[in-house]
């Protein structure tokens, strides 16, 4: 049933005057839809359209996984040891006496001897900052959307996509450190902008590298304002308003202003302060959300084996009425994972570039933990809770309207509301825990994306004090606006910009992966001198 055609809905549509934000939204929507369709352009595959960007991500991840001898599995324990600091003493002992810094067009402007000036944060802080940028509302809301559309089988392909995405993260984070710039005072400038421009120049493709770097930077700035900021504050404000039954035209603005003030206090201090906050917020929000979800799972432990049977069987023989059958479920799973952990988008490499190490591959190993935490762990736990909730048939998989599941009572639920109901049905009052997790996820994502966008902004407009301040003011304005107004078109446009990052970034990765191989061999010799190269 199309609820938008009911007399009640039509009456409301005709009698309620649209506000300024809605009129702007309607005017901008055609362009936003065009942009989204461009980035998500599809090619036919067994009667089902597959986005080209998804094909690039999947085949790129598979290539890196095989080329680096399944680094995502083989060196997973080593990655954990790097984060714990097991090899820090070895790294410090082998650091070169001089480290080249502030390279512009390949010319070294200065050098430094102080080893503390080869980075700004430690391995754990870099990981926490990057994880805070990827672990967000998508882990709660969009997983629910994917499950409601494709059924339990989506989870299997989501996990697989997360596992191979670990290899892509390894490549881009290694390159981020290998080609970063470090200023005289130790400030780090890194990310795809730098490994695209400098790395491609090394391979005799300097003009192409400059173009790709500029395109990436422009897209990254746009993504930081929208998907990484306005969308986060908008969804967090909506959840707070709904949970407490708040009303009033100024409520969203007030919530957005609070978010902006808190974010401003943190981001004004740069990556070091962001890292200090995220290293505390990320573990806390993970414990809060994962702890509550695991409590629900263990309270229904007798059904968990049935859940995983459904996940495995419906991954290949789905019962959900989804277009394309098996192929449709496959696409939903890979799409959800790719959009969630951002492996291939290159954004996280910006945070990892700030790490204090002289060995790029060490941070590449740390980076591969990101998709595991984001997708294999948190997204999967969310999926299991939702499947457990629907074991009694609260809604029919595949029976959706505009991404919202039609519940048995006829109501429409989508995204975070499905997850919220799943929590509340198992633990009374747990929806408040979920609301707290939503706010923390949103806040931490805003912090990380403020840094990503600032680095891209500086690449485009220079590294002056006023350049820095201008970006931060605009960014915080979007935090308030995102919570205060309805701008679906802007959010749609900005989310597509995050996916658009894949195109310039993956081109660079496919040209520069031999550099990663060289750096990885050096690091393995350092930590395992008696072992063979990868």
Summarize the structure.
The protein is mainly alpha-helical.
Describe the structure.
- There is one protein chain.
- With 534 residues, this protein is mainly alpha-helical.
- It has one domain: Amino acid/polyamine transporter I (Up-down Bundle), CATH 1.20.1740.10.
- The strands form 4 sheets. A 3-stranded antiparallel β-sheet has the order 7-8-9. A two-stranded antiparallel sheet has the order 1-2.
- A hairpin with a 2-residue loop joins strand 1 and strand 2.
- The longest helix has 39 residues.
- The N and C termini lie far apart (57 Å).
- The N terminus is likely disordered.
Key structural traits:
single chain, 534 residues, mainly alpha, Amino acid/polyamine transporter I, 7% strand, globular, disordered N terminus
Which SSEs are present, and which pair or pack?
Elements: H1 7-15, H2 20-39, E1 42-45, E2 48-51, H3 52-67, H4 71-74, H5 76-84, H6 88-94, E3 99-104, E4 107-112, H7 123-134, H8 137-150, H9 154-178, E5 181-182, E6 188-189, H10 192-202, H11 206-244, H12 251-267, H13 270-299, H14 301-316, H15 326-341, H16 347-352, H17 360-367, H18 369-389, E7 395-401, E8 404-407, E9 412-413, H19 416-426, H20 430-461, H21 465-484, H22 488-500, H23 502-527
Antiparallel strand pairs: 1-2, 3-4, 5-6, 7-8, 8-9
């Amino acid at each position: 049933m199309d609820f938008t055609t009911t007399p009640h809905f039509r009456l409301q549509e005709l009698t309620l005057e649209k506000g300024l934000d809605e009129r702007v939204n309607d005017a901008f929507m055609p362009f936003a839809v065009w942009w989204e369709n461009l980035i998500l352009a599809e090619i036919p595959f067994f009667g089902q359209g597959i986005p080209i960007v998804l094909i690039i991500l999947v085949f790129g991840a598979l290539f890196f996984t095989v080329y680096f001898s399944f680094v995502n599995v083989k060196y997973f324990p080593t990655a954990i040891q790097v984060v714990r600091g097991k090899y820090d003493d070895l790294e410090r002992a082998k650091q070169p006496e001089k480290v080249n810094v502030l390279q512009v067009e390949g010319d070294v402007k200065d050098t430094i001897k102080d080893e503390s000036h080869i980075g700004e944060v430690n391995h754990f802080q870099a990981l926490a900052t990057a994880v805070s940028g990827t672990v967000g509302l998508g882990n709660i809301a969009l997983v629910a959307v994917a499950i409601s559309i494709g059924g339990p089988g989506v989870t299997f392909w989501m996990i697989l996509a997360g596992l191979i995405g670990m290899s892509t993260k390894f490549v881009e984070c290694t390159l981020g450190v290998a080609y970063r710039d470090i200023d005289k005072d130790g400030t780090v400038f890194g990310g795809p902008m730098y490994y695209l421009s400098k790395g491609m120049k090394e391979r005799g493709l300097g003009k192409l590298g400059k173009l790709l770097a500029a395109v990436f930077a422009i897209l990254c700035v746009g993504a930081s304002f929208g998907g990484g900021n306005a969308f986060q504050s908008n969804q967090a404000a909506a959840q707070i308003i709904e949970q407490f039954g708040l009303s009033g035209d100024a409520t969203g603005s007030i919530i957005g202003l609070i978010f902006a003030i808190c974010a401003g206090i943190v981001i004004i201090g740069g990556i070091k302060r962001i890292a200090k906050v995220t290293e505390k917020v990320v573990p806390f929000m993970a414990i809060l959300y994962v702890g509550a979800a695991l409590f629900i799972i263990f309270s229904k432990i007798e059904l968990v084996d049935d859940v995983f049977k459904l996940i495995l069987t419906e991954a290949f023989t789905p019962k959900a009425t989804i277009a394309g059958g098996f192929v449709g479920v496959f696409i939903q799973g890979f799409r959800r994972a790719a959009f969630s952990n951002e492996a291939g988008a290159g954004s996280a490499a910006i945070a990892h570039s700030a790490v204090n190490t002289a060995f790029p591959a060490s941070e590449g190993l740390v980076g591969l933990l990101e998709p595991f935490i984001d997708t294999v762990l948190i997204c999967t736990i969310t999926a299991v809770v939702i499947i457990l909730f629907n074991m009694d048939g609260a809604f029919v998989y595949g029976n959706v309207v505009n991404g919202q599941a039609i519940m048995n009572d006829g109501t429409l639920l989508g995204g975070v509301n499905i997850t919220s109901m799943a929590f509340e049905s198992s633990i009374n009052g747990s929806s408040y825990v979920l609301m707290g997790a939503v706010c923390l996820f949103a806040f931490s994502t805003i912090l990380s994306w403020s840094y990503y966008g600032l680095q891209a902004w500086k690449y485009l407009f220079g590294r002056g004090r006023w350049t820095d301040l201008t970006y931060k003011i605009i960014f915080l304005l979007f935090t308030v606006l995102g919570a205060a107004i309805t701008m679906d078109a802007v959010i749609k446009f900005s989310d597509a910009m995050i996916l658009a990052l894949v195109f310039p970034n993956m081109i660079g990765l496919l040209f520069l992966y031999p550099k990663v191989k060289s750096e990885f061999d050096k690091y393995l010799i350092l930590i395992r001198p008696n072992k063979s190269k990868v």
